[in-house]
Design goal:
With 290 residues, this protein is an alpha/beta fold. It is built from 13 helices and 7 strands.
Length: 290
């Protein structure tokens, strides 16, 4: 099978390699000429046989919208656009309608696997029409891990990105639980070898996971994480997950707390904690640090 891939960064470049290794013909386009197979989106479309499949793997928001709008002008009825970036799920149905007006099909695909996906495979969550998903199944089979797991047709347009949003919200909570446990171990007077404890959990423990393996790997590289600043960004999916929890009336205590913890990490000196310290001083005479 043949497809075009737009965006050859950390994820897209590895995806191109994995699909080619599986026997697919992948023509990639990127603004960085040294990694691109073609010079333009127009040339990419020209090199594809009908019905053309073009997968976009670019940053969400304006860049994704601009890329898909350009493709809409270049592609033909019957062609297919797959967005594999972290677009917000609410963008998908309107995007599908705009493309359908031109006879172009659309799928949204949540992709998890990060920089390890090239070797381990990617978890894929797809939204869109059943027959279009079936047509593109060789692409998904090339990207997913071997075996029965790693792929889901989650539902109609938007379902793929919705599922990936919730996936990332869960990821926030899991990472923060490990992070809090690590900090308690570091603060303990008893535990003298925190990296060894983390390593001991990797087998035989109910908290074993790939995230734990990655924490162990980070501690192998820097046993006290001294070279890392305690600052964590968020790319939107955690916020959207909490928004959905509020809309649906679903208690999401852990995910919400992990998101707010990231906000705290960006404050040099928290105004809220200043207020707490001032209040403790006022009602109890507790000392404050100047």
């Amino acid at each position: 099978m043949q497809l075009g891939l737009v965006g050859l960064g950390r994820m897209g470049g590895n995806m191109r390699d994995r699909m080619r290794a599986a026997g697919l013909e992948v023509i990639g386009y990127d603004q960085h000429k040294e990694t691109s197979d073609v010079a333009s989106l127009a040339e990419l479309v020209q090199k594809l046989a009908a019905p053309r499949v073009v997968w976009t793997m670019v940053p969400s928001g304006e860049i994704t919208e601009g890329t898909i709008n350009k493709l809409a002008e270049l592609l033909f009825p019957g062609d297919i656009v797959i967005d594999g970036g972290n677009s917000k799920f609410t963008d998908d149905a309107p995007r599908a309608e705009r493309l359908q007006a031109k006879g172009i099909h659309y799928l949204d695909c949540g992709v998890s696997g990060g920089i390890w996906g090239k070797t381990n495979g990617y978890a894929l969550m797809v939204g869109g029409e059943t027959e279009i998903v079936a047509h593109c199944r060789p692409i998904f089979d090339a990207l997913k891990p071997a075996g029965e797991f790693g792929f889901a047709h989650a539902g109609p347009h938007g379902a793929g990105h919705y599922a990936k949003m919730i996936h990332n919200g869960i990821e926030y909570g899991l990472m923060h639980a490990y992070a809090e446990g690590y900090e308690i171990l570091e603060a303990s007077e008893l535990v003298q070898n925190v990296p060894a404890v983390i390593k001991s959990w990797r087998e035989g423990s109910v908290v074993k996971s790939w995230l734990l393996d990655l924490l162990d790997r980070a501690l192998d590289e820097d046993p006290t994480l001294a070279g890392i600043r305690g600052y964590a960004e968020d790319t939107g999916e955690g916020r959207w997950t909490v928004d959905e929890a509020v809309r649906l009336g679903v208690p999401a205590n852990v995910i919400a707390a992990s998101l707010f913890a990231r906000f705290t990490s960006r404050q040099e000196d928290s105004p809220a904690i200043k207020a707490v310290a001032a209040l403790r001083n006022q009602f109890g005479g507790h000392a404050v640090k100047r």
